[in-house]
Amino acid sequence: GAGVSQSPSNKVTEKGKDVELRCDPISGHTALYWYRQRLGQGLEFLIYFQGNSAPDKSGLPSDRFSAERTGESVSTLTIQRTQQEDSAVYLCASSLTRGGAEAFFGQGTRLTVV
Amino acid sequence: DAKTTQPTSMDCAEGRAANLPCNHSTISGNEYVYWYRQIHSQGPQYIIHGLKNNETNEMASLIITEDRKSSTLILPHATLRDTAVYYCIVSKPQGAQKLVFGQGTRLTINP
Q1: Which residues in B have their CB inside 8 Å of a CB on A?
Q2: What are phi and psi of B100, to 5 degrees?
Q3: Residue segments in chain B with a per-residue pLDDT below the cut of 50
């Protein structure tokens, strides 16, 4: 596909269950970002992958959150033992690594924890 | 990270120019100014970026002050579809640093 693809688009899960969210970046994009956006709020940075460098995990809110990226391809965000406050839209973006390169965002995964 | 300050909300009449200000007084020499917008229920969309010079593309113009401590995004002929939250971000070259979004400006275009 031409853009950043995220799946699933919607996910409803029970409190305490684990969920995996997937992001397929644009081919060739070395940088990949995950954000969380709660209803009516701004984008909250979670984690950033840049090539083979160690990821910047400074935004992960707790140890229940983790993310992986295989090379310069797919990334998975995992939330363990989900809580109701995890309900949000999770957005992924990717970009090239060069001056002035823009980030392209997916449409997000809407997670609802009931 | 350099921080930005934007008004919480703005209104503009359809067909008029929308001028969105942003203060970034602690910007450093190699940091770019980026603008993104988020239309309701969609992922953010890149608009424009600049370093020192003013920039223009098919979507907007970006005016950066000479001291680089502030900038203005200009939508020359606003339409109803331009209603969105607009984010001003200061960052090193894209991909070399995480993007940190503030609260942005909620722009409403009125008919």
Answers
A1: 32, 34, 36, 38, 42-46, 49, 51, 85, 87, 93-96, 98-104
A2: -115, 115
A3: none
What does the radius of gyration of chain A's CA atoms come to, in whole angstroms? 13
Question: Residue A53 above 90 pLDDT?
Answer: no
- Nearest-by-Cβ selection for B101 from A42, A100, A108: A42
Name the minimum distance, in Å, from the CA of A82 to any CA of chain B.
Answer: 23
Closest C-alpha to B17, from B82, B69, B64: B82
Euclidean distance between CA atoms A102 and B34, whole angstroms: 9
Is residue A1 over pLDDT 60?
no
pLDDT at res. B96: 56
Residue A107's pLDDT band, with cuts at 50, 70 and 90, is very high
Give the mean model confidence (pLDDT) for residues A15-26: 97
- Measured between CA atoms, the residue of chain B closest to residue A96 is B95
Beta-carbon contacts of residue B78 (< 8 Å; ≥ 6 apart): B12, B13, B14, B15, B16, B17, B18, B107, B109
